[in-house]
Amino acid sequence: MTPLVLVHGFGTSRHVWRRVLEGLEAQAVDLPGFGDAADAGKAGQTVEDMAQALAGALREAGGGPYRVAAHSMGGKVALRLAARHPELISELVLIAPSPPTPEPMDPPARATLRAAHGDRAALGTQYHDITRQPVPEQDFAHLISDGLRASHDAWVAWPDVGSREDISGQLGGLDLPITVLYSEDDPAISPGTIRAEVLARWPQARAVAIRGSGHLIPLEDPQAVLELLQATEERP
Q1: Is the domain 4-234 a CATH 2.40.30.10 member?
Q2: Mean pLDDT of 199-218
Q3: Sheet holding 66-71, edge to edge
Q4: What backbone phi and psi angles, to 5 degrees, belong to 164?
Q5: What does the domain layout of the chain look like in residue ranges?
């Protein structure tokens, strides 16, 4: 069985996968600046920085190549990782991924996101705004906790640097199975962005659209994620 690694999105940590991990065996990791890797965050960190850190973690763990499921910011990191280190990755499952091109956020939205770091009330508003399904109280509290302990440098680097990067020119030759799970009701990364900036670049990718969930699909609809990961594992 090919080992599965789960990569979180912006501001969260490996705990965003908690509900999914109740139904399958996988390793969830923290990207630099977040979760238990908060101290590894640095000013101006790029997608490449995060991809290289993830590559190092996978090499240290051994036993690859890996299937990688990645959410939001983690999706952009996983794409760069797969292009840079194809020997480490056998398959990608991208969940509401940030596109390889600059993420469409207007300046006020970037400023609001930047200012939410370390602000309990602002974090609560942010997560309410990007979800469409109730998130269990324990999980919502963990989202807030993750936002409070994240590295300030890594936090502001995403709206200021990483989300603005265009890495599409660095992904040529990406040749592996790709599945993209997204919500038609995602208020953070629109389905139009997914179709135009992700699916259109990889016509061979399998698209799985759901409804009713917002951006935090691993917490809002963990069953959809679990079923997809089980199905891709069983696919020949």
Answers
A1: no
A2: 96
A3: 27-29, 4-7, 66-71, 89-95, 178-183, 206-210
A4: -90, -15
A5: 4-234
